[in-house]
Amino acid sequence: MVEEVRALSNPIYSMSTPMAQWQSPLSSRFRQWLISSTTLLGILATGAIAPAVAAKLEDLYQLRQTGNCPNCDLSYANLRGRNLRGADMSGANLNGANLRGANLMGANLTGAILNSADLTRANLTGANLSNASLVMTRLDQAILTSVNLLDGILGGRDRLAKVENFTGATLPNGGPAIFPRPPR
């Protein structure tokens, strides 16, 4: 470390010296770190790694053919607007899945993982979400009438405040959902 400080305080490393001529090991490591960090951020920003963690094709096919897919890997699947009424997806991995506007009335999602999933405007009337994980799940204008959330894991600031209807729902603690809706 002392040698690196001496190298940086050496007059030959002035601001007028081109960066390519710098011989400090610190600057070389920093450039490598900067390039790899920038590359990683670019990959994450464009979602280029999403296909590597996407849903299994055979699981998507099973859901499409039978309407059921217990314990399936449907992570990051695009199920937008799908009619999944009464579907058995207990124990399924729906992490990051797009379920915007999906009909999940009466669906069995017991123990399902719905972390970071998008359930905006989804109808979950009568669905069983007991022991399900809904951390950072979007529930904007979702309908959760008579849904069972017993022992479920809910998390994310103000996620439940945007739900359209909780009438008759059972919350993770076993209590009834009583959320007065402000008049529009």
UniProtKB/TrEMBL annotation:
<dbReference type="InterPro" id="IPR001646">
    <property type="entry name" value="5peptide_repeat"/>
</dbReference>
<dbReference type="Pfam" id="PF00805">
    <property type="entry name" value="Pentapeptide"/>
</dbReference>
<keyword id="KW-0677">Repeat</keyword>
<protein>
    <submittedName>
        <fullName>Pentapeptide repeat-containing protein</fullName>
    </submittedName>
</protein>
